Amino acid sequence: MGRAAFCSPATVPWRPALASRSPWRCAGRVTGRWRRARTAGRPATVRMATGPEEPPTSTTPSEAQRGARDESLRQLLGMRGARVEKNVWKVRLQLMKPVTWIPLVWGVVCGAFASGAYQWNDPSDIVRLLLCMVLSGPLLAGYTQTLNDWYDKDIDAVNEPYRPIPSGAIGEGQVVAQILVLLFAGLGLAYGLDVWQGHSVPYVLSVAALGSFLAYIYSAPPLKLKQNGWLGNYALGASYISLPWWAGQALFADHGVDWKTAVLTLFYSLAGLGIAIINDFKSIEGDRQLGLASLPVVYGVDRAKWICVGMIDTFQLLVAAILAGIGEQKYAAALLGLILPQVYLQWKFFLPDPMKNDVKYQAAAQPFLVLGILVTALAVGHHGPL
């Protein structure tokens, strides 16, 4: 959903492959002479210099192939720097931003752990878990991302004009059809999982419907939560952390998700709000032009960066304190051990220059946050209902 995700390459710009220099050194202004040109690791060769030589600008075939593969991968995953694709099915996949599915799939796994009822050696449980991953990732995250691109096409025309809709790579009717197909396929699968699990209350369908509604009001007018830096980023954090956790836990736990566990995951969503703020730094100019009140626009870069790290650290520490308070001290200590590297990386990369080092910080720090979510889920599964 939105521009952000956890270390999501939908929010992490990949630089195009840089052409390396030619293996030949420039021979300079030499006429009618033989001159040696040597490259590291190669035998000496001889060529005739007949006049002034221009610096080589072409790339080797292997470099061109690597660059094409990089562009193709970025296109398929929905990353920045992707080439404009003409194949409509590849464009559809790009709209769904597959790389953003990863944190939701991870959240489903954490929810299954937290249920305390998932059996890893039960084939039927494995199939149900995989289907729940498809529900949260390709279907509903794909719906969310396509919907967001639809309502975000004016912003993308400023910030990311190569995106499929502003570039004209896909028609408007095709986009609307994709949104509806993904939405109803997701809701149908959620109901099917409830029936298969024998739920008297459609827990999974309820979570899926809530997430779908949240995705709509995040992107679409009149509410369009993304226009507000606080509400939009919190909706984003909840969608990527709480909702997939709830789906995984509700699928396997007979009692669904108890309110105390729900609150615990919402604390993690507040940490996710901080992560979402990171992704707003790169879009300050476009947001300002379009009147979006992102936190870097409202508070400025210096204040917003402190709000960001404060949210990330404070709510993770609060979760660790809760785990210690319910008697899960070992898990609390493990979680604390995963928070401290994040604090170090904030001081090393993010706080000195959040606009330059946002990608570097996320790549280095977010694995620790993601593992912390798993540790918390294991603690809940070990402890039982809070």
TrEMBL record:
Example GO BP: chlorophyll biosynthetic process
Subcellular location field: Membrane
Entry's transmembrane regions: 99-120, 126-143, 175-193, 199-218, 230-247, 259-278, 363-381
Region (Disordered): 37-70
GO cellular-component term (any): membrane
Keyword terms, alphabetized: Chlorophyll biosynthesis, Membrane, Transmembrane, Transmembrane helix
InterPro entries reported in the protein's UniProt record: Chl_synth (IPR006372), ChlG (IPR011799), Prenyltransferase_related (IPR050475), UbiA_prenyltransferase (IPR000537), UbiA_sf (IPR044878)
Keyword DNA-binding tagged: no
Membrane topology: Multi-pass membrane protein
Molecular-function GO terms, alphabetical: chlorophyll synthetase activity
Gene3D superfamilies named among the record's database cross-references: UbiA prenyltransferase
NCBIfam families: ChlG (TIGR02056), chlor_syn_BchG (TIGR01476), PRK07566.1 (NF005742)
Name recorded for this polypeptide: Chlorophyll synthase, chloroplastic
Lineage: Eukaryota, Rhodophyta, Bangiophyceae, Cyanidiales, Cyanidiaceae
